[in-house]
Specification:
Belongs to the GntP permease family. Its main location: membrane. This protein is mainly α. It contains 19 helices and no strands. 78% of the residues lie in helices and 0% in strands. It is globular, with a radius of gyration of 22 Å.
Length: 442
């Protein structure tokens, strides 16, 4: 009965948004209230779960998205994004732009959390799209596929790192195996699948579309790259110092603070305010007006993400995730396939990759103790499963849909299919490594 309620909730959400044309935030609230009552939560429990879901979800992304929107606005308005796009095209040409974007996503996706990388790269994607009149989804999807794989598969991202600790796996081997699997997964889900999406019409958010400036009015190349990619550079330096210095040293608290994405984004925005704003002769009042405009463009996105978080929390509070996991545990399937399947089922129902991964790990721990399954591969199998079939209850789905200004149908065709390809190819890579490693003596 519980699974039927969850299924009806997902169908109601899709129906209200796609066919009923109801505002997505309102649709989430209506479905969340109905689902919570149907699952037996009292009024107090239901409203508490909604408040917690909204607060926890927005608390983790609000600062990053708002600061990222501000940084993206000044990168676009100053001409820095136009300058970066010109350099990329000059080096690689438009023929290989998908591969250029994919490699960029790989590089920045290692140190940056997904939401940070997404909002940071949006101005770069859109500047290439508008300057060279290329399809937005075709250009942007390979980069976002790379970011998504890094988030789901590889440490130091939250879910893989937590899974490594729970399964007592090796963080180094997990990263190495994950990289071997990630490369074909991103190539197939990004540049290869992206070839089928050239026909999707996308008019991205106006906040990141600026007038083409003459070359003599653009900031310098070095200034453009450093100012735009400063969050990546800062975080890479901090993480490098954390790896080199002994833990618990005198600099450890400061480095932990500086590694926070919101701190990195704030520091980067302050620098860009000067290097791409007042330092180029632009009045401070004009820069602040641009920042205020950028926040208006992401306000609805934040509400939708909060709504997705509220629905997720109601499902968690009702015990749905554990019920799904337990119902799948006694199937007799191989542990690696079972871990993927449990994570995938929870992901489809709850929308959160992190919750899907951590819940599946808790269920698989007893099984791991009784089997000889490679713990590094179990981390990757669950990570791959946690990315399957991102749809209306996933915050990442709405980030992509709203920033690229797509219809629900085109978002399902592009974003949801990309995530599913990554998940399935990831499982195939895990099973292949499980077969090959014993032959290689590992």
């Amino acid at each position: 009965m519980t699974l039927l309620i969850v299924l009806l909730a997902v169908l109601a959400l899709i129906g209200l948004i796609s066919w009923g044309k109801v505002n997505a935030f309102l649709a989430f609230l209506l479905v969340t209230l109905g689902t919570g009552l149907a699952l037996g939560l009292t009024g107090g429990e239901l409203m508490g779960a909604i408040s917690k879901g909204l607060g926890d979800t927005l608390g983790s992304v609000l600062i990053v998205i708002v600061l990222g929107a501000m940084l993206g606005k000044i990168v676009a308005d100053s001409g820095a994004a136009q300058q970066i796009a010109a350099v990329l095209i000059e080096v690689f040409g438009t023929r290989y732009i998908q591969w250029t974007m994919m490699i960029t996503g790989f590089i920045i996706g290692i140190p940056l959390f997904y939401n940070v990388g997404f909002v940071l790269m949006i101005p770069l994607i859109f500047s290439v799209v508008y300057k060279y009149r290329l399809p937005a989804v075709y250009v942007g999807l390979p980069m976002l596929a790379a970011l998504s794989v890094m988030h789901g598969f590889l440490p130091p991202h939250p879910s893989p790192t937590a899974l490594v600790a729970q399964f007592q796996a090796s963080i180094g081997l997990t990263f190495l195996y994950g990289l071997l699997i990630a490369i074909p997964a991103v190539i197939l889900a990004g540049p290869v699948y992206g070839l089928t999406l050239r026909g999707i019409v996308s008019v991205p958010l106006a906040s990141f579309v600026s007038e083409t400036l003459p070359e003599n009015a653009l900031p310098g190349r070095v200034n453009s790259f450093i100012s735009s990619l400063l969050p990546v550079l800062l975080l890479a330096v901090v993480l490098g110092l954390q790896a080199l210095l002994p833990p618990g040293g005198p600099l450890s608290p400061a480095l932990t603070f500086l590694a926070e994405p919101s701190v990195v984004m704030l520091a980067s925005l302050l620098v860009a305010t000067f290097t791409l704003g007042t330092g180029l002769g632009r009045p401070m009042s004009s820069v602040m007006d641009a920042y205020a405009s950028s926040v208006k463009d992401v306000a609805l996105i934040l509400l939708i993400i909060g709504g997705a978080g509220a629905l997720k929390e109601v499902l968690v509070a009702s015990g749905v995730s554990h019920e799904i996991a337990q119902s799948l545990q006694h199937t007799g399937l191989p542990p690696l396939l079972l871990g993927w399947l449990i994570a995938a089922a929870i992901r489809v129902c709850l929308g959160s990759a992190t919750i899907a991964g951590l819940t599946a790990a808790g269920v698989m721990l007893p099984t791991m103790a009784l089997s000889h399954t490679n713990p590094n591969l179990m981390v990757l199998s669950i990570g791959a499963g946690s990315l399957l079939l991102s749809h209306f209850n996933d915050a990442g789905f709405w980030l992509f849909k709203e920033y690229f200004n797509l219809s629900a149908k085109d978002t399902l065709r592009s974003w949801t299919m990309m995530e599913t390809i990554v998940s399935v190819v990831g499982l195939g890579g895990v099973l292949l490594l499980d077969w090959a490693l014993p032959l290689l003596g590992h």
